[in-house]
Structure formats: structure tokens, C-alpha cells
Design the sequence.
């Protein structure tokens, strides 16, 4: 067996999860802050839309994304008009799909963490001369650190485990859209259990390692705070 | 220079609409029952209530003027605020909390870090994590942090209210020293009249969202003396100066308006000038000067007038040297002692009661 046969889908999966998580954090941090602090018309509806990927079957989500991303779909046409890449069967499309698919898993921990920061704490910082951005970076983000970590880990792990959506909008192009979960599925389809075992084992061990690091970090943090 | 405000804020059923002008060089007490709008007023002054309208100015600087569209946000007003629950930042230790304020402070005429630590007595706490502090320690750090921001006005919102009795006793005289040493004007909220009397030079009385009285503490107390706003009942406010500290017996000898008084050292702040709240229930009366009694404070007095207090007792107002004292005695004792206006009498104040007053 060729080393690149393992390496390419593994690298692709990690890259997809990493890029999606970074985009999700950048988008969700300001929006979740707004949602945590302000009430406005239509907020419950928007919250429901953000939470939809939790309850929708991935195939349903994948189907709608496929319709949107297709060259004659709304987002497909927009991307083409702006000189962007094709959104179906491409890495860019996969990133966009993952962002939608993992959105609630990043958004909700952030919103909860931000909501826990009491207004009086922000008031105290304001009376000490800290302006809104100053307060956000020196008070809100440090105190929301456990929530940030949870959001990042959930977003990353959820994207790594993505299967239905990838299958619908990505297909299985090696190096482009053939992630670990697709590779395992294909190996099983082809009755290549040996390779499926190897891939699944790598996923199992790496997921366990990631979670252990996170839990160890969380424990060290909470011990420090006692 | 004075602090002037005329502000309005509606929140549901509650309407705060009031105005006042207070001398800004002094400690002002803001007093009133729970729900009268004391905290809301402080928050409006600090700029923490964006919906408030009206006008607020300190000297020449205008913080709020709705008519001209001026609404300076809190972080630009430079008003120190000590919250009921301290609101220290949990991700920073004590020293870093102080530095957070100092980094953003106007450096001109700021107290040095050493001065702040000395005044508030937090030198042993600097490396501690805020979650490990006791209630009293937390409030001292909160005051230190507010001072470190070098504010033009310091607001304290019942800093003792979240403390248990023991911590409150310990913190009370410290707070007096801190406020006297604060280089900026102070407004101090409390629902305890005795606490306000002891700490402030000027009093604002608030009720139902309106300031009903703004007067020097002394004048405000004359009208307030019969109102039972403290659990311990009526009291006399006595200005005192420490003349001698007896380390052996841990007693302070004080020269006061009502004559020489002895009080426990722990009840007297470190500053030379001090005030005592002497509760009427802690003053006993005697026709003869007691000898060989355990009571250390025996003061010759003259009865000014008697007022009914409750069905079994009366409140006796006494002229005592150059000051005024009050005593609650039973009606029976009053009859036996034949207390009438102008009768000469001895007022007995048990020394240890000072340790418990005024923060009951």
C-alpha cells in the first residue's frame, strides 16, 4: 500500500476541518456576541435557522447545498459571476458546506459562554476606562476561553466526522474531496477491510488524542481557578 | 466645584426623575430605602444607563446633556465605581486587577501604586487569585482598583452590604479611613443612616426615585433623628479627635463635643479625626455619679426634652458639654429619676458598644 493513499485523505480531512473551524470562529465570535447581549426582532427565527443542521439529516442538508451550489443554483451562479471556483465537487465547496454543517456546534458554545459574562463585569471595565473593543479583547475573550475551546474542538471534530454532506456535494476526488470518512466508506464498499481498519483506527486514535488534550487542558484550567 | 445633575429614567413602573447639586470636594452619602433608586442614580451618573436623559456636569465638564445630544460613554467619564459585589475580573489576580485600572488611568496626579496598596491595606493579597479572597478582601481590592483608575469622582454602591457581620465590622473603620484619604469626591450609597452619618459630610435622602433632601450631614440628621431607618434606632452623631492611644488596654481616648470618651482602639479609624454614632439604646442615665462601676464613660448632662418612643419607653435628648446625646429609658425609670427639662443627670455609655456601632 502506498503511503500517500493514507496521507492524502488524512491531510485533506485535517485541512478541511482546520480551515472550516477558523472561518467559523471568525464569523461566529462577533455574531454570537451580538446574539448573547442584544434582543432584536427575529432573533428566535435566526437562532432556529442556525440550529437547523443539528436536527436535519446530513443528506437533506447536502441535497439543498447541492441545489444551491450547482452551476445553475443561486450560489453556484454567484461564485461563477465573481470569478470564484466551482462549488460542487471541489474543496472550496466542501469548506462552505462544512461551515454550514458545523455552524451550530461552534455558534452555540460561544453564545452560551458570552451570555455567562455578567453585565456588571463589563460595566466595571467601562468605569476603569476600557472602551467597547478593549473590553471585548481584555475581558470577554479571556473569560470565554473555555467556551472558545469547546467551540473550536466541536467545530473541528464535527467537520472531521462529516460524511453525508461531503458525499452529496463533494463526491470522492482524491486530494480534493476524498476525506477520511469517504475513503473508509469506499474501502468497505470494495470489501477492502484491511485498509478500512487502518483508516478507522487512525481516526479513532487521533480523535482520542485530541479529546484527551482538550480534557487535560480543561482540567488544568479549572484546577487553577479553584 | 460642584456636581450638578437633573436626570430622568423610566424603567417599567419605576420612574427616577430628580435633581441635586452637591459639593464635590466632600464625601456625600446617598441614603434611602431599598428600591428608592439609589443604585440606578449612581449608574446614571457613571454613564451605565444609556437610556437616561437630562444633564450631568462636574465643574466645567459636561457628561450628559440630552438637549445638546451629549452622552459621554462610561469609559470616557473617568468615574470610579465600586460595585456591591466587587466585580473583580476572575481571569486576573489581585495585582493584575489593579494594573488593569492603572494602564487605562490618567497619569496626572494619580496616586502611586504603593499609596493605593497602603491606603487599602491589600499588600498581602497582591499575588492571590480573586476567587480565593474573602468578601471584605474583595471589596478592599475593588476600592483599590477604582482608586488606581484615578477617577474624578468615586461612587460606592453599598460596598459593605454583601459582607457578613464580622467582615462588616472589620471593614467599616477601614472604609472610613479610605474615604477620608481619597483625593477625589466620593458618593457613597447606603440604606443605613448611621453608616451614612459616620462616613459623609453631605447627605442626599432618596425615596421613590426622587431626592427629597440634600443637606450637610448634621442638618440632615436633625430632621432624621426620630426616623427609625436603622435597626438599632435613634443615635447621636458625635465628632471626635483621638487624643491618646492606650496600647496596653487597647483603648483610644477621644476628645469629643460631648466630653472625653474612651472607646476600643479597633473601633476608631487610624485617622485623627473621627465620628462616633452613639445609639440612644446604649446610653443609660443616673442621678448620681457612679463610682467603682465598670462603665468608663460617665458624662455630666442636662435634659433638653423628652419624646415618646414606644409604649414602655421614652427618648431623652441631652445637652452634654457642647454636644447633644440621646438616651432611651423606660417610662418607669424616667419617673423614678424625675427627668424633666433642665434636670442635671449623668449619661453612662458602655465602652464596648462602640465596637458594634454604627454598622448594625
Sequence:
Amino acid at each position: 500500500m502506498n503511503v500517500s493513499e493514507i496521507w492524502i485523505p488524512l491531510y485533506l480531512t485535517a485541512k478541511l476541518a482546520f480551515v472550516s473551524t477558523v472561518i467559523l470562529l471568525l464569523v461566529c465570535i462577533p455574531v454570537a456576541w451580538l446574539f448573547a447581549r442584544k434582543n432584536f426582532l427575529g432573533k428566535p427565527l435566526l437562532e432556529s435557522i442556525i440550529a437547523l443542521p443539528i436536527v436535519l439529516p446530513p443528506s437533506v442538508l447536502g441535497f439543498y447545498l447541492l441545489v444551491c451550489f450547482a452551476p445553475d443554483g443561486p450560489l453556484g451562479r454567484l461564485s461563477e459571476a465573481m470569478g470564484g471556483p466551482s462549488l460542487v465537487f471541489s474543496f472550496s465547496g466542501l469548506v462552505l458546506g462544512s461551515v454550514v454543517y458545523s455552524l451550530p456546534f461552534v455558534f452555540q458554545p460561544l453564545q452560551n459562554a458570552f451570555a455567562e459574562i455578567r453585565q456588571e463585569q463589563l460595566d466595571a471595565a467601562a468605569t476603569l476606562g476600557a472602551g467597547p473593543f478593549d473590553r471585548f479583547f481584555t475581558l470577554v475573550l479571556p473569560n470565554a476561553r473555555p467556551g472558545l475551546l469547546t467551540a473550536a474542538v466541536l467545530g473541528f471534530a464535527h467537520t472531521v466526522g462529516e460524511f453525508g454532506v461531503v458525499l452529496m456535494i463533494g463526491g470522492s476526488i482524491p486530494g480534493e474531496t476524498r476525506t477520511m470518512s469517504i475513503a473508509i466508506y469506499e474501502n468497505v464498499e470494495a470489501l477492502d477491510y484491511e485498509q478500512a481498519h487502518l483508516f478507522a483506527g487512525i481516526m479513532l486514535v487521533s480523535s482520542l488524542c485530541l479529546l484527551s488534550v482538550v480534557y487535560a487542558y480543561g482540567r488544568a484550567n479549572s484546577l487553577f481557578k479553584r | 466645584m460642584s456636581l450638578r445633575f437633573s436626570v430622568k429614567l423610566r424603567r417599567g413602573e419605576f420612574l427616577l426623575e430628580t435633581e441635586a447639586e452637591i459639593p464635590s470636594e466632600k464625601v456625600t452619602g446617598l441614603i434611602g430605602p431599598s428600591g428608592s433608586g439609589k443604585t440606578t442614580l449612581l449608574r446614571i451618573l457613571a454613564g451605565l444607563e444609556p437610556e437616561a436623559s437630562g444633564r450631568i456636569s462636574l465643574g466645567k465638564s459636561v457628561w450628559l446633556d440630552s438637549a445638546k445630544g451629549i452622552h459621554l460613554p462610561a469609559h470616557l467619564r473617568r468615574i470610579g465605581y465600586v460595585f456591591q459585589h466587587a466585580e473583580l475580573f476572575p481571569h486576573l489576580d489581585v495585582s493584575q486587577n489593579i494594573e488593569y485600572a492603572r494602564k487605562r488611568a490618567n497619569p496626572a496626579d494619580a496616586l502611586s501604586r504603593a499609596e493605593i496598596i497602603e491606603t487599602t491595606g491589600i499588600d498581602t493579597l497582591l499575588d492571590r487569585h480573586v476567587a480565593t479572597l474573602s468578601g471584605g478582601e474583595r471589596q478592599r481590592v475593588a476600592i483599590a482598583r477604582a482608586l488606581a483608575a484615578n477617577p474624578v469622582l468615586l461612587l460606592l454602591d453599598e460596598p459593605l452590604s454583601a459582607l457578613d457581620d464580622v467582615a462588616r465590622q472589620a471593614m467599616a473603620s477601614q472604609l472610613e479611613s479610605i474615604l477620608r484619604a481619597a483625593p477625589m469626591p466620593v458618593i457613597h450609597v447606603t440604606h443605613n443612616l448611621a453608616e451614612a452619618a459616620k462616613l459623609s459630610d453631605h447627605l442626599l435622602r432618596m425615596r421613590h426615585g426622587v431626592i427629597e433632601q440634600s443637606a450637610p450631614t448634621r442638618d440632615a440628621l436633625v430632621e432624621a433623628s426620630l426616623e427609625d431607618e436603622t435597626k438599632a434606632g435613634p443615635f447621636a452623631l458625635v465628632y471626635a479627635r483621638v487624643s491618646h492611644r492606650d496600647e496596653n488596654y487597647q483603648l483610644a481616648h477621644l476628645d469629643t463635643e460631648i466630653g472625653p470618651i474612651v472607646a476600643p482602639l479597633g473601633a476608631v479609624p487610624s485617622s485623627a479625626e473621627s465620628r462616633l454614632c452613639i445609639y440612644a439604646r446604649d446610653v443609660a442615665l443616673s442621678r448620681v455619679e457612679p463610682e467603682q462601676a465598670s462603665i468608663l464613660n460617665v458624662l455630666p448632662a442636662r435634659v433638653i426634652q423628652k419624646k415618646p418612643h414606644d409604649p414602655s419607653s421614652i427618648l431623652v435628648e441631652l445637652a452634654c458639654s457642647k454636644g447633644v446625646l440621646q438616651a432611651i429609658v423606660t417610662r418607669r425609670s424616667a419617673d423614678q429619676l424625675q427627668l424633666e427639662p433642665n434636670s442635671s443627670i449623668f449619661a453612662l455609655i458602655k465602652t464596648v458598644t462602640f465596637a458594634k456601632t454604627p454598622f448594625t
Remarks:
- The domain at 236-356 of chain B is CATH 2.40.50.100 (OB fold (Dihydrolipoamide Acetyltransferase, E2P)).
- Confidence is low (pLDDT under 50) at residues 356-360 of chain B.
- The longest strand of chain B covers residues 297-310.
- Chain B has two domains: 2-224, 236-356.
